[in-house]
Amino acid sequence: MNKIFLILFFIIFLCMFSQNKINKEKFENYNNKPEFPIDVVYTWAGNKKSNDIRTSNNNELKYSIKSVLKYLPWVNHIYILMNPPKRKPSWIDESLDKYITVVDQTETFPEGYDLPNKNSNAIETTLHNIEGLSEHFIYFNDDVFIGKPLDYTYFFTPEGKALISDLSIHGTKMLIKGKENKLKIKLPEMVNFFYNHVPISLLKSSIIDYQNEYPDYIKFIRNQTTRNDIGCDVCTDNNLKCPCQQQHFIVARYMYKQNKAELKNYDITTGCSKDGYVNSYCLNYLDEILKNPPSTFVIQDTESDKKKRPYVNYKINEFFKKFFDEN
Q1: How far apart, in Å, are the Cα atoms of 37 and each of 137, 140, 316?
Q2: Per-residue DSSP letters for 40-60?
Q3: Residue 100 forms beta bridges with which residues?
Q4: DSSP label at 196?
């Protein structure tokens, strides 16, 4: 009976995975265009189907981009930074070629690093190296989605300051008190917890300034080619607080100290919530998002049971088709 059940779901998946391309519809229908170009950057592992929750693919990138095209029509350009070799996703229509550019790590990492790098923290230190990237850009993970039309001032002030999490002000030294600095390098100030899982507003010039001030620390992060779980082992092994690798709060604090950022409250919880976060154990909240979409939301595949993964894949893709009115 279980085999018949799995075969049935597999047949359904094949039907759902037909390569419906996203196109240019509504991309230029903005009402309030910003005075400065704002790009979007994604990091992406590729199309590979996997039972590993770290590399699984439920068409998240396709539908995340579709949410940007639909609800952020003022976006200047979209970049997809992926593991090498780069390859254009088959579901991107040719009409979007001038709006979406695919690059890979060989174009953003300096020479001398082992690639591909599978550590998201390391990859995120290279976003600003994307050729042609605008000064103002928004960083998306592929499991982050826009739920309704948003003005550019949701991400930046009219003057161009980045809007960052108000938790950014809770600074702390990265080195554990009383411990030896094993790395013998200058360390930036951090925040002792993880950034909200939301689109992240960034300024390219501030990232460059920050990395020029802490070059040895950046080199240390880029040399971490893999990540175990949330990456705290690298921190504790070097007498550093966790999350010592994550860049989001560090860059946010740096922009704030430069007077290039303003604080914003992101009312999104870290557990299952109809207000913005859904994981594999609370897929019932997807119906709530259909009824009342939040500004941004997350659908995170956390299912480690291989027998249950087909069902999770089916439910997530079923939601996407309903949310975007796909027949």
Answers
A1: 8, 17, 32
A2: EEEEE--S---S-TTT--SSH
A3: 78
A4: P
Cβ atoms 147, 64 nearer than 8 A: no
Token pair belonging to 63: 């539908």
d(CA 307, CA 105): 33
Q: From CA 264, how far away is CA 162, in angstroms rounded?
A: 10
What domains, with CATH codes, occur in the chain? 27-172+189-232+244-323 (3.90.550)
What angle, rounded to 10 degrees, do the helices at 248-257 and 204-213 form?
100
Q: Please name the residue ranges forming H helices in the chain.
A: 2-16, 60-71, 120-123, 204-213, 215-222, 232-237, 248-257, 285-291, 309-323
Q: Calculate ∠ Cα 35-37-41, nearest 5°.
A: 145
For the stretch 195-216, pLDDT in tens is: 988 999 999 999 999 999 999 9
Euclidean distance between CA atoms 244 and 236, whole angstroms: 9
User: Which of these, 80, 81, 65, 72, lies nearest to 37 by C-alpha position?
Assistant: 72
pTM: 0.89
